[in-house]
């Protein structure tokens, strides 16, 4: 009986360890995806601001 108990406990430990590793990988992947999305949004905002400044400059030159 003692041998079966050890085998069961080791198996349970493997399942817990696998679950923890899976959670950590998913968490890291989600964080990475969120950072990439945030960077994409910042780039899009920067590009929009650049276009707006360029339009204002063109308008200023047109007025002069």
Feature tags:
64 residues, mainly alpha
Structural class: mainly alpha
State the total count of DSSP E strands.
Answer: 0
Low-confidence stretches: none
Radius of gyration: 28 Å
Explain the overall architecture.
- With 64 residues, the protein is mainly α.
- It has one helix spanning 2-63.
Write the topology of this structure.
Blueprint: H1 2-63
Write a concise synopsis of the structure shown:
With 64 residues, the chain is mainly alpha-helical. The protein has one helix at residues 2-63. The longest helix has 62 residues, at 2-63.
